[in-house]
Amino acid sequence: MKRTVLIFSLVLLISSCKESAKVRIERDITIIPAPQQVSFFEGTFEMSEKTAVKAGNGLINSAEQLRDYLCPSTGYLLPVNKSVPGGNTIELVLMDDLSSLGEEGYKINISDKKVLISAYTEQGIFWGIQTLRQLFPHEILRKAATDNIKWSLPCADR
């Protein structure tokens, strides 16, 4: 009986710790404008010099703009539409089936290997990029390379 109570107590303690961590992540992230819906998952996407930006049809300018936003503070000149061995990707994609989001709507899916920003229009991609910038540590807005920053994002669907 004591063993059952001990196991139950440990399971309860572990599950409450996981929930606390999730609440802390949600509280620490401020996005303007606030998203309609966000679901966080375990894990992080780690941007590095091995990260590549991939652009769907007609989005090369948006991909280059994203690269130009990220380069000064990170020091990473991320390649656009090139594969980088062992790297992860930030991908921009237009999708006709997202027309219900409107001209400025977008979706962001973040896994440990890929960030996908999808939208119905290029304007939606633009706003998705702005949200992505807000998800990184605030040093991402600096105009000079910043040392000792972990450029990570929480895994999420938005």
Compact overview of the structure:
With 158 residues, this protein is an alpha/beta fold. Helices cover 35% and strands 22% of the residues.
Describe this structure as you would to a colleague:
35% of the residues lie in helices and 22% in strands. It is of the alpha/beta class and 158 residues long. The protein has two domains: 1-30; 33-157, Chitobiase, domain 2 (2-Layer Sandwich). β4 and β5 (114-119) form a beta hairpin. It has a six-stranded mixed beta sheet with strand order 1-6-4-5-3-2, with helices on one face. The chain is globular. Residues 1-27 have low confidence and may be disordered.
Annotate the secondary structure layout.
Layout: H1 2-28, E1 39-46, E2 52-55, H2 60-74, E3 89-94, E4 106-110, E5 114-119, H3 122-135, E6 152-157
Parallel strand pairs: 2-3, 3-5
Antiparallel strand pairs: 1-6, 4-5, 4-6
Helix pairs in contact: 2-3
